[in-house]
Design brief:
The complex is a heterodimer. By secondary structure, chain A is an all-beta fold. Chain A contains no helices and eleven strands. Chain A is globular, with a radius of gyration of 13 Å. By secondary structure, chain B is mainly β. The N and C termini of chain B lie far apart (36 Å). The chains are: A mainly beta, B mainly beta.
Chain lengths: 113, 115
C-alpha cells in the first residue's frame, strides 16, 4: 500500500536559514507526490506536486522538492526561511485510483526571528 | 472561483447530540472528498463522491456518520449521537472531472468539539 513517512514532527530554523522537511515514500507508491501546507485554523494549500516529469519541482512561496527514486525521498526545501513560513507541512501520496490521499503525520515548522 | 467553502467553521456540541456540516466545492468540480484530521495527525480519508454518487467510504465512517451530495453540488456530513472521540477537524476537498484528478483543493475545515 502507498504511504509516506515524515521524519521530524517539529523543525525549528532561524529566519533566513535553510528549511529542510523530510518525506520518504513507500516503494509501491505511484509516481505522484504532493506537499501541502496548513496555516493555523485553515485548510490545506497545495505547495507543489511531482508528476513524473522533472525530478526537481518548484512550488509556491519559494519552496521546492526533489524526487529521488534511489532514496525513495521527496524532501521539501527553501533556501531562506521567512517568518510567514511557520505552519504545518504535510507530504501526501494519492492512492492508485486517485480517490483519496494518504497523508504523512505532518511537520510543524517554527521560524525563529 | 471562490474556492471550497465549509460551514460552520467551528462547532461545539454536547455528547449525544447530532451535528451537520456543509461543504460547497469549487463550481464544476464533480469530485468531492471528506477527511478527518485529529490533533497532531494528517488528514484521514472518510468518503468520496463523484457527482451525486458516494463511491467510497472509509472504515472510519461508522454507522453514526452519513454523507450526502444531492444534485452533485454541495455536500453534507452528519454525525449522529456524537462522542468525544469525534472531536476533530473535518476537511472537505474537491477536484475537477478528468485531467489530473489527483489534485485536490481543500476547504478551511470545520472544527468540531464534543464536550
Amino acid at each position: 500500500a502507498q504511504s509516506v513517512t515524515q521524519l521530524g514532527s517539529h523543525v525549528s530554523v532561524s529566519e533566513g536559514a535553510l528549511v529542510l522537511l523530510r518525506c520518504n515514500y513507500s516503494s509501491s507508491v505511484p509516481p505522484y507526490l504532493f506537499w501541502y501546507v496548513q496555516y493555523p485554523n485553515q485548510g490545506l494549500q497545495l505547495l507543489l506536486k511531482y508528476t513524473s516529469a522533472a525530478t526537481l519541482v518548484k512550488g509556491i512561496n519559494g519552496f521546492e522538492a526533489e524526487f529521488k527514486k534511489s532514496e525513495t525521498s521527496f524532501h521539501l526545501t527553501k533556501p531562506s526561511a521567512h517568518m510567514s513560513d511557520a505552519a504545518e507541512y504535510f507530504c501526501a501520496v494519492p492512492r492508485v485510483t486517485g480517490n483519496q490521499f494518504y497523508f504523512g503525520t505532518g511537520t510543524s515548522l517554527t521560524v525563529i526571528p | 472561483d471562490t474556492g471550497v467553502s465549509q460551514d460552520p467553521r467551528h462547532k461545539i456540541t454536547k455528547r449525544g447530540q447530532n451535528v451537520t456540516f456543509r461543504c460547497d466545492p469549487i463550481s464544476e468540480h464533480n469530485r468531492l472528498y471528506w477527511y478527518r484530521q485529529t490533533l497532531g495527525q494528517g488528514p484521514e480519508f472518510l468518503t468520496y463522491f463523484q457527482n451525486e454518487a458516494q463511491l467510497e467510504k472509509s472504515r472510519l465512517l461508522s454507522d453514526r456518520f452519513s454523507a450526502e451530495r444531492p444534485k452533485g453540488s454541495f455536500s453534507t456530513l452528519e454525525i449522529q449521537r456524537t462522542e468525544q472521540g469525534d472531536s476533530a477537524m473535518y476537511l472537505c476537498a474537491s477536484s475537477p472531472a478528468g485531467g489530473f484528478s489527483y489534485e485536490q483543493y481543500f476547504g478551511p475545515g470545520t472544527r468540531l468539539t464534543v464536550t
